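Dataset card, provenance and construction

Sequences and ligand SMILES were collected as paired inputs. For each pair, a complete structure of the chain with the small molecule in place was predicted and serialized as structure tokens. The example below shows a pair involving flavin mononucleotide. Curators did not alter the output after generation; any descriptive sentences attached to a record were derived from the structure itself.
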Amino acid sequence: MAKHALHTKLCDILGIEYPVVLAGMGGVSRHKLVAAVSEAGGLGIVGAATMGPEELREEIRKVRELTDKPFGVDILLPTMGATPQASGSGAGGGGEGGIPRNWRDMLPAPQREFAASLRRKFDLPDVEPDFPTASGRLEGTPFGPGFSRSQIDTILEEKVPVFASGLGNPEPYVEEFRAAGVKVIALVGNVKNARRVADGGTDVVVAQGAEAGGHTGRVGTMALVPQVVDAVAPKPVLAAGGIGDGRGLAAALCLGAVGVWVGTAFLVSKEAAWDDVLKQRILDASEEDTRVTRIYSGKTMRNIKNPLIEAWEESGVPTLSFPFQAAVIRDVTFAAEKAGRKELGMNPAGQISGMFNEQRPAKDILAEIVEQAAEIIQRLPADVPAVTS
Ligand SMILES: Cc1cc2nc3c(=O)[nH]c(=O)nc-3n(C[C@H](O)[C@H](O)[C@H](O)COP(=O)(O)O)c2cc1C
């Protein structure tokens, strides 16, 4: 394939060749995928959401064994409350105060009983779940006081060049990162939060549209990106949500973004650390096969649809706040795993899922995105001549 130059301001800021960033997907964006994307000229980002400091240190060192190119680490800064309020109660904010030690006793009866009824409905075994949970180690309160501080210390000690926050505002840490020469990226789903993280000193803002896989907001990418670009100008913005090929990258550049933050397209890559059964469900999915649900974490998350999501949504039982809902549903998903019913588990993926049919190497996915975008941009003046009068 002929090599195209597709250089934006992002490439200078991050020291990369192409303006394509691997989304820091927790449990998915691990060393092999991160290194593959960075080696191919993009920026790989480790999804370290639930990784404690030592696991994270090991992961960073494994990336360095595979590449000497820049890469980053993504964590979730605390935004959870200290009690498990039902969704819609207006609660859920909070800080590093985190989870009380008796959190398991605090899970309300209606949700626990409904989860037990789901186990019976799906004929799942009666097994005690292990912890850590899928979305956070609640035992020992690692999502509580000091957890993100310990992750950040590791990032600084290991001299990782880029920090990304997938939830929350990195402002309290920006000075430290700046002093250490670490670039800061923050993910947002609306203009208000874009302004907040930009004012807080974030170097690059990711505008993530509602079609994205994983935790997602309410505003579509096409509407969100230009509004965020205008709100935080001249700060650089990345477009995220529904970007699967070079058409998506070219469109993002037209909307004023300086690059793209790509999740689902790399989630189905060969190197992604994700279960093959779950990857196949994504590859089999159409653009209509995802649902936004709070069932797995307590926050709105786009997943491949399954009967467990449907049963909870139809029941009308309110979900709990993050991350208590994860503890309630873990009783069901752990039993489902034991019974070989992986399809009932969390499988975050975006509406772009319908575009992918096979697992491919990450470097091919990245090369195709860049090549196609460059071709479109070169061809555009001939295809769509601007008329001057
Ligand atoms: C499996 C999966 C896990 C994710 N985990 C995280 C995470 O831990 N931190 C984060 O910032 N974003 C996470 N996201 C969201 C991505 O960062 C990204 O915004 C999203 O995938 C972009 O939309 P797309 O999937 O349409 O490309 C996750 C997305 C998926 C699909």
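Derived descriptions for this record:
The first strand starts at residue 20 and ends at 22.
Residues 103-139+276-344 form one domain.
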